[in-house]
Each structure stands twice: as structure tokens, then as C-alpha cells.
Write a structure and sequence with these properties.
It is a single chain. By secondary structure, the protein is of the alpha+beta class. Helices cover about 35% and strands about 20% of the residues. The strands form 3 sheets. A 5-stranded antiparallel beta sheet has the order 7-6-5-9-10. Strands 1-2-4-3 form a 4-stranded antiparallel beta sheet, covered by helices on one side. Strands 8-11 form a two-stranded antiparallel sheet. Strand 6 and strand 7 form a beta hairpin. The longest helix is centred in the C-terminal third of the chain and has 20 residues. It starts with about 25 loop residues before the first strand and ends with a helix. The structure holds adenosine-5'-triphosphate and magnesium ion (MG) (2 copies). The site of one magnesium ion (MG) has 4 residues, from loops.
């Protein structure tokens, strides 16, 4: 776990910052109180910048510009969403029916060399997923592998998957990549909310607001959001959720319009963001009404 102490609080109240997913070493404490640094990606920087003036601005971390460290590495400085919580429980849900960009598929198609290593990776997990022809060749294309991998988790059918959970004082769990079935995902969510009805209701209200804001957001209408997450954070007193991780969010090509709720077909650029959001909302409602 990459952790550091934020200088935001008085000594006795300092909290441990927690990074659930992503590469280690890409986050640091911010220059300003209540801010963190994330290694710069130009795509993400551009999104953070325009989101500050979009209707979604209250659903994303505040953005404070680019920072250079002593070694000359560039970072974006953004609000630490954990800063106002006490011993928070945190959950990262990756939203969307796919987590790769169409351009990543195009790129791997430029090198259409079927690979034995990917075949081996696939048979290790699901022999039955391979066709007879693939078994004969003992090789598969990278694109085939990328698309198949999405069906292992709930991403393809529910439009989201739980990436990691860290419960207050508890240990971090990342064993969610193979959780696919609706009921299993629901059980994990239930576990995260630790059976608090008022907490689940706070999350639900915030998610409803997020959904209606997405619909009228210019940013949301004009972008494809891939690999972006919802970060759920709660402590004893409050619960809230924010959109994070815009490294694979892209401005839609000219003439392409997406609904965010139709299933993905190659070249459609549909991301399934609202499929995921609606499924989380539906699961939460079921949990509340049980
Ligand atoms: P990946 O692309 O593999 O998902 P990444 O390097 O793009 O990872 P993020 O997904 O943006 O990184 O963030 C990784 C983790 O860091 C999140 O799961 C969350 O725990 C934490 N994190 C990110 N941004 C914030 C923030 N603004 N406030 C608090 N925690 C954050
Ligand atoms: Mg992420
Ligand atoms: Mg990312």
C-alpha cells in the first residue's frame, strides 16, 4: 500500500492516504493542504481542466494545475477526496462495459501476430472459451484476448466492476476481478455498506444527482469515458461518491454521438457508462428495500 501522511491536518488527526488501484509511485502528497499529486497524463489533465467549469464539477476532485517535482517529473494536483473523512471506507468501481479504447484495439491489430502466451493465459482460466480452431493453432490475437478478458468480471454484463475495497481499519481487498454474477456483486456492495440504511440512502441520493447531472453535462455528451471510476467514500458520519481517473477519457471523433447506454459495437465508441451507473443504482435500491 502506497501511503503517506497529508500535511492537511493537525498532527493528532493526520490520516493515512490510501491508494486502492493503479501503479505504485504515481501518487504523492500535494503542495497544498488537502491535495494530492498524480503523475501527469495529458488526456487526464485536459479533462480535469474542462471539468472544473462543467456541470459535473461537484462530482470530480478540484483541480489545481500542473506541478513539477525536484526530479522534473510532472504531476497534476487535485483534491484529496479522503481529506474530510475520519478512518474512511473506500471503494473503487470501474465504470463501463469495456476498459480498453478502440484505438488500443486498432493498435494491436496493426501487429496481427497471434500469440501463444495469450493462448496459454486464456486456457489457464477458461478452456471452454476457445474455439476449436484456436485450440488447433494454440495462438490467439491480442484483440481477441482484450475483449474476452472483459467478460471475466461484471464489466461486460453490468457495465461496472468493483476494483478494490478498503474498509475502515480493515485490510484492502482486490480479489474482485473474477466476480461476474449480479448476486455476487450485490453481496460485495452490501458488505461495503455494512448494512447501514442511512449510508446506502446517502449514496443513492448522490448517485441520482450524478446521473441527472451527467445527462445535462456538455462534457459527458461529448466524451467517451473508458477506465474511469466512481470512488465511494464513507465514515461514521457521511457518505459520498466522485468520478475519478480520466486517463482514458477521450473527446468523441467528429460526427460520432454516443448514448452511454447502448451496448458497444466496434467503432460505435459507446462506453456503457450509464449502464454501469444504472446497475449500481438498481443494486443499491434492492439492498435498501431488502
Ligand atoms: P488505473 O488506471 O490502474 O485505474 P491510475 O493510475 O489511473 O489507475 P486512479 O485510478 O486515478 O489511478 O487512482 C488510483 C487510486 O488512487 C484510486 O482507486 C483511489 O484509491 C486513489 N485516488 C485517486 N484519486 C484520488 C483522489 N482525488 N482522492 C483520493 N483518492 C484518490
Ligand atoms: Mg483507476
Ligand atoms: Mg487510470
Amino acid at each position: 500500500v502506497a501511503t503517506f501522511l497529508t500535511p492537511t491536518q493537525k498532527k493528532e488527526e493526520r490520516h493515512q492516504w490510501v491508494q486502492l488501484v493503479g501503479h505504485r509511485g504515481t501518487f504523492k502528497k500535494g503542495i497544498h493542504d488537502g491535495y494530492i499529486l498524480k503523475e501527469l497524463s495529458e488526456h487526464e489533465e485536459y479533462c480535469c481542466e474542462i471539468l472544473q467549469t462543467d456541470s459535473l464539477k461537484d462530482f470530480v476532485p478540484k483541480y489545481n494545475g500542473i506541478v513539477k517535482d525536484a526530479e522534473g517529473r510532472l504531476f497534476i494536483e487535485m483534491e484529496d477526496l479522503l481529506a474530510s473523512f475520519n478512518d474512511p471506507s473506500i471503494m473503487d468501481c470501474k465504470i463501463g462495459v469495456r476498459t480498453y479504447l478502440e484505438e488500443e484495439l486498432d493498435k494491436s491489430e496493426c501487429n496481427p501476430e497471434p500469440r501463444t502466451d495469450l493462448y496459454n493465459k486464456m486456457i489457464a482460466i477458461d478452456v471452454a472459451a476457445l474455439t476449436e480452431k484456436e485450440h488447433e493453432e494454440k495462438k490467439i490475437l491480442k484483440t481477441r484476448y482484450m475483449i474476452w478478458r472483459e467478460s471475466l468480471s461484471s464489466s461486460q454484463n453490468l457495465g461496472f466492476r468493483i476494483e478494490a475495497i478498503q474498509k475502515s481499519h480493515g485490510s484492502m481487498s482486490k480479489q474482485f476481478h473474477r466476480i461476474k454474477e449480479r448476486e455476487d456483486v450485490k453481496q460485495q456492495l452490501k458488505d461495503f455498506f455494512t448494512n447501514s440504511l442511512s449510508r446506502a440512502n446517502q449514496y443513492l441520493e448522490r448517485l441520482f444527482e450524478l446521473r441527472s447531472t451527467c445527462i445535462r453535462s456538455r462534457f459527458f455528451q461529448s466524451h467517451e469515458l473508458i477506465g474511469s471510476s466512481l470512488l465511494f467514500v464513507h465514515d461514521k458520519n457521511k457518505a459520498s461518491v466522485w468520478m475519478i481517473d480520466f486517463g482514458k477519457t477521450r473527446f468523441l471523433p467528429d460526427g460520432i454521438h454516443i448514448t452511454h447506454e447502448k451496448s458497444w459495437l466496434r467503432n460505435s465508441h459507446e462506453d456503457g457508462y450509464l449502464i454501469g451507473l444504472d446497475n449500481i443504482i438498481a443494486l443499491l435500491q434492492e439492498i435498501i428495500n431488502e
